[in-house]
């Protein structure tokens, strides 16, 4: 597991290290500077003409310390102090004095020139306000310069809490971040501005924060195998769950197909599609493995029988927002007693009829909205959601007790019990119609096989992304279709099966 701390959590960890463990802020600053210089040399960056741009806070102090260490190694440096003189921290004042003792001149504005590398030490993790005025212009000039861009801890202008751009941001080629990767470096657009991220251990104690606060995290590639549903030798189709897929509408049979195909490719034993009569023939041709049950009118008795049959339900993909679809969704929410995933139009209908939520009798629900669907559900703007997604997600799951899979370039899984999971698999080739239908089918299949809502959502999001990664390798970034993801799911599952087999073999050898 890899934790992704936000700016507030890192500041608390920093304070605990200084106040409780007795490691001075100056010592941490010296360690940070040393790790940055070591990284520059290890990465073989051109240090023949370095410019270090420093602010008033401790990130600026790191920058002055870096400049001093580079100077002591014989590298020529240009140092620019662009902060407010009266707002300097004590540590920054000390680092400026130590730098001046080496004979280096500190310019009081950004000095444009042809540099080999520009080192950004302006704001760090503490920035929360939008960058305007002279700072905006300075970062703009730094970005326009033809030099390698190096960020200290965080690219200036990126929120460490949310990954958002606060007016403007430094576009780094390399970011050295201290102790732990910050959440804002993992989520877009912060990820895009960070370049190659290198985590440097400088001795900040983070264990207490991780133990006492809900912390965002991700997993390493080899850790997902522990979530795989067991496949027993003595088993049959009933062993691996009966999934009811309520999907599709006239002209939208593809959503039902992608749900069901993805579910079968994810190990579900039996999939029954409940869809309008118009879709019967095409679905029987596309997916003969599925049971097809159709309707012309809303038949509550038939629907309740299907809900009783199922071990899990997937509802919403392509059902439209007609009166018939509304009645089907309402009856499902009122009567379903097994884990239920709500996707797409199911969420759009709930957004229009929030009273339906009062009819739900249990909390085993997973919702899979993209940003626009989530904004409709919460009646807020997409921009507000992007700026404060973690806080908004935490509030939503606390109130609903559901598991939410918020789809974006970095998909987030939020639930009451744990910190927010950030999915790192996947790529831009997956940005095609139907990709979300595939994800819904994967997660629903894992629910049918007995995984908890949280585990099914985390594993499903990861495997969906890995299928996209495999598809891009074979088909490139432009030509991947949603149906390709269902085919490459076998690669994603096989990858984790092999990891699991390898770990079992190693365990047996130790015994």
Structure description:
The protein is an alpha/beta fold. 44% of the residues lie in helices and 14% in strands. It has 19 helices and 18 strands. The strands form 3 sheets. A 9-stranded mixed sheet has the order 12-11-10-13-14-15-16-17-18, sandwiched between helices. It has a 7-stranded parallel sheet with strand order 4-3-2-5-6-7-8, with helices on one face. Helix 9 links the parallel strand 10 and strand 11 (270-276). The longest helix is centred in the last third of the chain and has 29 residues, at 482-510. It is elongated and about 85 Å long. It starts with a strand and ends with a helix. 50% of the residues are buried. The model has no long low-confidence stretch (mean pLDDT 96).
Please write out the topology.
Blueprint: E1 2-4, H1 7-19, H2 25-42, E2 50-54, H3 58-72, E3 77-81, H4 90-100, E4 106-107, E5 117-121, H5 133-144, E6 148-152, E7 174-178, H6 183-186, H7 190-194, E8 196-200, H8 207-212, E9 216-218, E10 242-246, H9 253-265, E11 270-276, H10 280-286, E12 291-295, H11 300-309, E13 312-315, H12 323-335, E14 340-342, H13 345-352, E15 365-367, H14 371-378, H15 382-387, H16 389-400, E16 403-406, E17 412-414, E18 421-422, H17 435-448, H18 453-475, H19 482-510
Parallel strand pairs: 2-3, 2-5, 3-4, 5-6, 6-7, 7-8, 10-11, 10-13, 11-12, 13-14, 14-15, 15-16
Antiparallel strand pairs: 1-9, 16-17, 17-18
Helix pairs in contact: 2-3, 3-4, 9-17, 9-19, 11-12, 13-14, 17-18, 17-19, 18-19
């Amino acid at each position: 597991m890899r934790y992704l701390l936000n700016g507030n959590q890192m500041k608390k960890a920093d304070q605990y290290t200084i106040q409780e463990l007795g490691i001075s802020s100056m010592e941490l600053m010296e360690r940070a500077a040393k790790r940055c210089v070591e990284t520059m040399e290890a990465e073989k960056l051109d240090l023949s003409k370095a410019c270090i741009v420093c602010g008033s806070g401790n990130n600026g102090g790191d920058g002055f310390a870096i400049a001093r260490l580079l100077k002591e190694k014989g590298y020529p440096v240009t140092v620019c102090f662009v902060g407010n003189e009266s707002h300097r921290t004590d540590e920054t004042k000390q680092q400026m004095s130590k730098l001046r003792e080496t004979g280096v001149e500190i310019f009081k504005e950004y000095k444009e020139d042809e540099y080999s590398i520009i080192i950004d030490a302006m704001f760090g993790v503490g920035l929360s306000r939008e960058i305007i005025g002279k700072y905006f212009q300075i970062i703009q000039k730094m970005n326009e310069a033809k030099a390698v861009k190096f960020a200290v801890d965080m690219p200036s202008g990126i929120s460490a809490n949310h990954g958002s751009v606060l007016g403007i941001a430094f576009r780094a080629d390399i970011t050295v971040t201290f102790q732990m990767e910050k959440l804002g470096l993992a989520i877009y657009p912060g990820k895009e501005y960070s370049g190659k991220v290198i985590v440097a251990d400088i001795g900040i104690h983070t264990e207490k924060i991780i133990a006492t606060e809900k912390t965002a995290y991700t997993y390493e590639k080899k850790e997902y195998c522990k979530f795989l549903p067991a496949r027993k030798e003595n088993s049959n189709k009933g062993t691996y769950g009966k999934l009811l897929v309520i999907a599709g509408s006239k002209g939208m049979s593809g959503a039902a197909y992608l749900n069901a195909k993805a579910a079968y490719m994810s190990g579900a034993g039996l999939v029954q599609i409940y869809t309008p009569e118009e879709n019967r023939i095409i679905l029987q041709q596309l997916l003969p493995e599925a049971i097809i049950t159709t309707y012309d009118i809303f038949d509550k008795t038939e629907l309740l029988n299907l809900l009783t049959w199922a071990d899990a339900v997937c509802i919403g993909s392509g059902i439209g927002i007609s009166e018939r679809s509304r009645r089907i969704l309402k009856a499902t929410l009122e009567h379903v007693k097994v884990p239920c995933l709500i996707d797409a139009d199911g969420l759009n209908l709930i957004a229009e009829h929030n009273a339906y939520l009062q009819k739900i009798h249990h909390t085993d629900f997973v919702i899979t909205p993209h940003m626009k669907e989530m904004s409709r559900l919460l009646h807020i703007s997409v921009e507000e959601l992007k700026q404060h997604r973690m806080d908004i997600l935490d509030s939503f799951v606390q109130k609903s007790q559901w598991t939410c899979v918020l789809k974006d370039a970095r998909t987030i899984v939020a639930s009451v019990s744990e910190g927010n999971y950030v999915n790192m698999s996947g790529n831009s080739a997956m940005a095609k119609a139907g990709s979300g239908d595939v994800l819904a089918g994967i997660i629903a299949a894992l629910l049918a096989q007995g995984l908890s809502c949280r585990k099914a959502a985390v594993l499903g999001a990861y495997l969906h992304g890995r299928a996209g990664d495999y598809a891009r390798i074979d088909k490139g970034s432009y030509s991947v279709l949603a149906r390709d993801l269902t085919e490459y799911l076998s690669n994603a599952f096989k990858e984790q099966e092999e990891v699991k087999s390898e770990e079992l073999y190693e365990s047996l050898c130790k015994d």
